[in-house]
Amino acid sequence: MQNRNTYEWTKKMTRLISVLVMIHIITRTSISNAYPIFAQQGYENPREATGRIVCANCHLAKKPVDIEVPQSVLPNTVFEAIVKIPYDTQMKQVLANGKKGALNVGAVLILPEGFELAPPDRISPEIRQKTGNLYFQNYRPNKKNIIVIGPVPGQKYSELVFPILSPDPATDKEAHFLKYPIYVGGNRGRGQIYPDGSKSNNTVYSASATGRISKILRKEKGGYEITIDNTSDGGQVVDIVPPGPELLISEGELIKVDQPLTNNPNMGGFGQGDAEIVLQDPLRVKGLLLFLASVILAQIFLVLKKKQFEKVQLAEMNL
Question: What is the pTM of this model?
Fold first, then answer.
């Protein structure tokens, strides 16, 4: 009997552990899939026809971003694309739970067709040291020219180094020796709107009606319920403010519709920029070097000829 009870208990514990492991795997997978960038879930292409990068739909504040790339690169060559996302690293942002924390950064790099993230075996130790432990990924499996990164700690990675491999027109018939544009978008901090259109707690909350604030209830888990006596129809309206933003109003105060109830806790923002890069033909470089060498030699011979002519003239005058 005791053995049977032990067997049943062991069987139940095994099932419980299996369920917990499955929950952990499912939860972890969903988080990791959602983390790289929200835009991946809702947009086939991160750059709209107008040139606007879709990250700006959720990160409403405008901030600067800069990109540095070489003026020209040779085919089948690994080079650096450096994205700079400047901000005051001492600033703190409102987290999803309403507490204050450091800002994260993220970026999307839109390269010309044929350019892609360099494979690990092609990255030099020097570039590998600059990229650190960053994990880059393609925006879509079939869009290797669009690379995303983040969110990553901004205090450590306000400057992101992308290792890029240039195409080779000798093997890729779609690639040509031309000047190409490169587009970049970079954000620091959390967004103000989620992809489904709902507000985050990192933005301003405004009154939905005109009237008098009759009650402000602080919720147990943070945030507020603000009751407004509507002057237009005599009813009551309840506005919900999540944890994070600080209230600017008090009970008994008269307010108007769309008047801010809270401050703007956002410390971050999004910016986009562009650059140009030339895929240089090695034969053109060699031709240019030969041309410059011929010009230099011609100048040397001209000087020597002039000296020789002057010597002849001087000899004739002495006669």
Answer: 0.78
